[in-house]
Amino acid sequence: MSSSLELKKQVVDEIKEKITGSQSVVLVDYRGLSVEEITDLRKKYREAGVDYKVYKNTLMRLAFKDAGLEDFNQYLTGPNAVAFSNDPVAPAKITSEFSKDHKDLEIKAGIVDGKLIDLDEIKELAELPSREVLVAKALGGLNAPITGFVNVLQGNIRNLVYALNAIKDKQEA
């Protein structure tokens, strides 16, 4: 077996491992972007812990087929790059925000938790608030009834103190 074929098999295995090990995958067409723009995009991905790679379409087709995602192969035309992440929202959010300022970056499709998603679903996913904001909202929602209960209890105690002060003032006068 030739070393070239062995290297290709290793790359296919690497792609398949990244597909199956990631919560989300976003496929983009980067045609028309300058080297500086691509470097900026890579930097944003890296800061968010997203793995951004360019592979040959034939190798990606084999990897997606091996991963049981043959439907994804219809999007593998032209120059493509793939963003892999364990965060289900990060690649979609970064790519969507970047494509607003750079019209040449085309979002093609994605995968979230093993399900193929199209451009509209990627944009919806990108509009979700960050994990921290969602956690804060949930905790705020849980905290609101408790805060209301404490205010009610304080109101009763406060009214009792006012009544006792009024009685004291009346007896002193």
TrEMBL record:
Function: Forms part of the ribosomal stalk, playing a central role in the interaction of the ribosome with GTP-bound translation factors.
Top-rank taxon, per record: Bacteria
Protein family membership: Belongs to the universal ribosomal protein uL10 family.
Cross-referenced Pfam families: Ribosomal_L10
Alphabetized InterPro entries for the sequence: Ribosomal_uL10, Ribosomal_uL10-like_sf, Ribosomal_uL10_bac, Ribosomal_uL10_bac_type, Ribosomal_uL10_CS_bac
SUPFAM superfamilies (UniProt xref): Ribosomal protein L10-like
Source species of the chain: Gottschalkia purinilytica (Clostridium purinilyticum)
Coiled-coil zones: none
Protein name listed in UniProt: Large ribosomal subunit protein uL10
UniProt xrefs under PROSITE patterns: RIBOSOMAL_L10 (PS01109)
Organism phylogeny: Bacteria, Bacillati, Bacillota, Tissierellia, Tissierellales
UniProt keyword Ribosomal protein, yes or no: yes
